[in-house]
Write a structure and sequence with these properties.
The structure holds 2 protein chains of 2 kinds. Chain A has 24 helices and 5 strands. Chain A is mainly α. Chain B is mainly alpha-helical. Classes of the chains: A mainly alpha, B mainly alpha.
Chain lengths: 664, 315
């Protein structure tokens, strides 16, 4: 089985492509014309290999790399293959897009960006196939570093440097937690994942390892309150990088959490699932409520990533509860729902970030308040963005709906549980998910309506232009995936089946009657069924029929007139709703959630300005106290730092004496 | 799938689309009587549609394809919704393509498209309508979903057919969760169909209107499609309410002999429900728009409470 070798080959290929970026003849225009398309080809190849490998038994290789006595272990199993597919498929679209996007960079920095970009891709692939804690951490840190360089591509802007700093900080808090978690796991055996699987960890230590992993991977995924880096780093990064970070990098954290919880730890407990579920519900609602308040398009999308991580974790939490209470089939359903949403989010969020980048490229705008009417100047981008917006709003028959549907099904099966507390919390999670879905739709009507429809709110929006072919190709690829993943859920779930068999020794088992591929029936046909293909066919047929009937029986005559302004002649573009105005009722209804700073002008003010700033409470409640405590502690430590070398030598001497006494 | 089932599916789909304006006519007539006016003919909505289809469409200059495309999508969505709700019999082969969650999804698609179309024009009215519609929808949609979850927990299924069959067979009694769900459903019905006290379909006052602001720019065939779709939506909501909360008399799968009785029962229930809606509208006042979120949030809370009650008492 050469699949694992091919994956490593693709990683090396990506590294080579990246390295070519900084070699002289390539660092100019060739970066965009040759290297990024090559990277996209690598992505396609990776997706194809991963798809082929997903049903095969796990393969292991030991690489002759690393420290002496600490070689790198590589393992390709169904879970890795699924996430590699996600990486490859998303990276293919994003690299295509990047080929066009970075062509506009004139100052010669595209070459170095190309290197960092491909190192980033390669390190994510390595995270997914690493089979020991050492290799995993090396790949994980490479991923964090390369992405942090990419975030600070525009490093001359102090705001962006600050965003990069926050990102690095949280990434390292997370990395330390992951390292400690691996430390606990490796305490009884070795540092390889195989040794951890066989280790007999006691219940208390298993919980400690789980909680550390949850914090560590949660920091990368963006669970509340460790989400603060997302709305800073995503807008700062170039759009293809945002798409990769949000679409794929957050998913490596989901991968890590699943790997540790389901594979390395001895058994999943329902209490862990409950913790995950509660965090997930908070994260989901928090993400969408703050997304609604944003007017910077990329910040808004970043908050939606927080929300979607919450939705993924709702599925995962349900699955863990079902594993812990001995409901294996339901556990599979929850896990499949979580994985499906992971894939869906990668695709539609990638598409939306690329769309935001296209708007930025085509019109130079990132603030919704200055957009408007872009559908006329960039029709293709508008159509693809609408596709992504409908998908993320969980509207049938696109892909977001399928995974939310599966999550709802998993939640509705909770009467199978024994404990009363669990049974009453799960419906609340379902209610929260329902609310989040509806609010997402509201948010994306706001985004699409304000940015692409209506009249231009600024001259730039009116002068915008459509982006180039590579960019549209990249977006079209992801848009097509949104449609395919939405229309062929049974096929996708069948592909995911080996993961459930690997991790839970169980499967949903779609081995029934003949037309099974058409009907998604997770448990039993009379329990629930959904067929997106029939759904789409009927709705298209009805639409066409209505269109034809109207024309056949009546007519299709049309004339253009000015919009009705209720007899008020001075109507202009500024009278349209703004992004802030559109979401203002939400701010009123959910006002306890927000910390709003409103500046109202004085009635006699000659140049009145009104502003309302919505801030994230987690800064005041969590981060600022920690920052103050850190400053305080370092000041205390500062007392022993006097700046004379003799004193420092004395410190060393005392330390050695202490250690000697301690060791003996 | 049986041939009879397929035939019934086709008949119901056409019948619902054809009969929906009649229901609107009935509600309007009842309301006129309650207001001591002489009522328009029951066929008035059909005449209205015919008139609109004959007119030339006037399209605002600023609009894109979204605006022209939306009425067809909305009409298609509502037709789909009406086709999967069991009205007379539960043997609907097509209902397996979409369950209650998908049904809520269909309504959401229609809502998103009508709001986008309203924002497409780029006037103050359109965006105002879209904002209000999405706000009400954002709270009403989860409430509707939770109402359906209540029912699907009772019947262990999210399939419309199974839910209705289970509820129809259940012995008569007062179930607390169902009572909460029914009240919440009624509130969602009022909010989603632009009825008093949430919205007034007979006004063009900018301070209060929601639905009318959304469709202000539509004319002729586009307007006809949207109005027809609204009528189908009202019919679909009535049918859902009847099928879930008063399902007695519905013909179960294979039992075609019960169909005549089912027709009588459904017509009687629709007549009573339509009159009830008119009465409700006649005795209540339009709410301030800022109070509407509270109203819909109450529906959401009631539905969630019903869900919790069910876990406590019934499962």
């Amino acid at each position: 089985m050469p699949h694992a070798e091919i994956v490593i080959g693709i990683v090396l290929f990506w590294l080579a492509v990246g390295a070519l970026g900084i070699i002289r003849p390539f660092s100019g225009r060739a970066v965009s014309a040759v290297l990024f398309p090559l990277g996209a080809a690598g992505g396609i190849a990776l997706a194809a290999v991963a798809l082929a490998a997903i049903g095969l038994p796990a393969t292991q290789i030991v690489l002759p790399l690393g420290l002496p006595d600490l070689p790198f272990h590589v393992r390709l199993d169904a879970l890795s293959a699924f996430f590699l597919f996600l990486l490859g498929a998303t990276a293919a679209g994003v690299s295509c897009y990047a080929a066009g996007y970075f062509a506009a960079v004139k100052d010669g920095s595209a070459g170095i960006t190309c290197l960092q970009y491909h190192v980033f891709l390669a390190s994510m692939a390595l995270v997914l196939i690493a089979d020991d804690a050492y290799f995993f951490m090396v790949a994980w840190e490479t991923m964090a570093l390369s992405s942090s360089f990419l975030v600070t591509t525009e490093h001359r802007d102090p705001e962006i440097r600050k965003a990069g700093f926050i990102y690095m900080l949280i990434a390292h808090v997370g990395a330390i937690a992951i390292l400690l978690s691996f430390g606990v796991l490796a305490s009884t055996g070795g540092y390889t994942f195989d040794a951890m699987r066989n280790a007999q960890l006691s219940g208390g230590w298993a919980t400690v390892a789980f909680l550390l992993a949850l914090i560590g991977f949660g920091a990368k995924a963006g669970i509340v309150p460790l989400h603060v880096w997302l709305p800073e780093a995503h807008p700062a990064a170039p759009s293809p990088v945002s798409a990769l970070m949000s679409g794929v990098m957050l998913k490596t954290a989901i991968y890590g959490l699943i790997r540790v919880t389901y594979d390395l730890l001895p058994g999943v407990r329902w209490e862990w699932g409950l913790i995950v579920l509660v965090i997930a519900v908070v994260t989901t609602l928090f993400g969408v409520l703050f997304a609604l308040m944003q007017h910077d398009l990329k910040r808004l999308l970043a908050y939606h990533s927080v929300e979607n991580i919450g939705i993924i974790l709702i599925g995962l939490g349900l699955s863990m509860i079902y594993v812990g209470t001995g409901q294996p089939v339901l556990a599979v359903l929850g896990l499949i729902a979580a994985l499906y949403h992971t894939l869906n989010h990668a695709v539609f969020k990638g598409l939306l970030f690329l769309g935001a980048g296209a708007v930025l490229h085509g019109s130079g705008l990132r603030d919704l308040g200055r957009m408007g009417g872009l559908i006329r100047v960039m029709p293709h981008t508008a159509f693809l963005f609408l596709l992504g917006a409908l998908a993320i709003s969980a509207l049938p028959p696109l892909n977001g709906f399928v995974s939310e549907w599966l999550t709802f099904q998993a939640a509705l099966l909770s009467p199978a549980l024994e404990q009363g507390v669990l049974r009453s919390i799960i419906p609340l999670a379902a209610a929260a998910l329902a609310l989040a879905g509806a609010l997402t739709a509201l948010c994306f009507v706001k985004v699409f309506g304000v940015a692409f429809l209506g009249q231009p709110r600024s001259a730039e929006a009116g002068r915008g232009h459509e982006v180039g072919g590579w960019e549209r190709l990249g977006m079209a690829w992801l848009g097509a995936l949104c449609v395919v993943l939405g229309l062929a859920p049974v096929w996708v779930i069948e592909i995911m089946d080996p993961i459930a068999r690997d991790l839970l020794n169980n499967s949903l088992g779609f081995t029934g009657a003949a037309p099974q591929w058409l009907w998604l029936t997770p448990v039993a046909p009379e329990r629930a069924s959904y067929s997106p293909l029939i759904f789409l066919v009927v709705i298209v047929a009805v639409v066409l029929l209505a269109f034809w009937l109207v024309r056949a029986f009546y007519h299709g005559r049309l004339r253009r007139t000015p919009a009705w302004s209720c007899g008020f002649p001075g109507s202009n573009a500024r009278m349209q709703d703004t992004a802030e105005g559109f979401a203002q009722p939400i701010r009123q209804i959910f006002s306890p959630v927000y910390e709003v700073e409103v500046h109202r002008p004085d009635p006699f003010d000659r140049a009145p300005r009104y502003s309302a700033e919505v801030r994230d409470r987690s800064w005041d409640w969590l981060y600022h106290p920690i920052a103050r405590a850190t400053v305080f502690c370092s000041r205390l430590i500062g007392y022993i730092q006097v700046g004379r070398i003799s004193v420092y030598l004395m410190y060393s001497f005392v330390t050695i004496l202490f250690l000697l006494a301690f060791v003996r | 799938m049986t041939a009879a089932g397929a035939l019934y599916q086709l008949v119901q789909s056409l019948l619902v689309v054809a009969a929906a304006p009649l229901l609107v006519g009935w509600v309007n007539a009842c309301r006129a009587w309650l207001q001591n006016r002489s009522a328009p003919s029951l066929l008035q909505p059909y005449r209205m549609l015919r008139k609109l289809f004959h007119k030339d469409a006037a399209l605002a200059e600023n609009t894109s394809w979204v605006f022209r495309f939306a009425p067809y999508v909305i009409f298609g969505c509502m037709w789909l919704a009406a086709a999967i709700v069991p009205v007379l019999a539960t043997d609907l082969p097509f209902a397996t393509a979409a369950d209650v969650i998908a049904l809520v999804g269909i309504f959401a698609v229609a809502r998103v498209f009508i709001s986008l179309a309203a924002m497409d024009v780029g006037t103050a009215f359109g965006t105002l309508g879209a904002r209000r519609e999405m706000l009400i929808g954002a709270l009403a949609e989860p409430a509707l979903l939770i109402v359906f979850f209540n029912l699907s927990l009772i019947s262990q299924s999210t399939s419309l057919t199974t839910i209705v069959e289970t509820l129809a067979r259940r012995e008569f009694g007062l179930y607390p969760s169902l009572a909460f769900a029914a009240v919440a459903f009624l509130m969602v019905l009022l909010a989603e169909n632009a009825r008093i006290p949430v919205d007034n379909p007979a006004t063009h006052l900018e301070l209060t209107m929601v639905h009318e602001a959304l469709i202000l720019e539509y004319s002729a065939r586009h307007l006809a499609l949207i109005e027809w779709a609204s009528a189908i939506k009202l019919f679909a909501y009535f049918a859902i309410g009847i099928a879930f909360f008063l399902p007695w008399g519905i013909a179960e799968a294979g039992d075609w002999g019960a169909l005549p009785l089912a027709i009588v029962a459904v017509v009687a229930k629709l007549v009573v429900a339509g009159a009830g809606l008119a009465l409700l509208e006649a005795v209540s006042a339009k709410m301030r728009i800022f109070r509407v979120p509270e109203f819909v949030a109450t529906a959401f809370m009631l539905a969630t409470l019903g869900l919790l009650l069910q876990y406590v008492f019934e499962v």
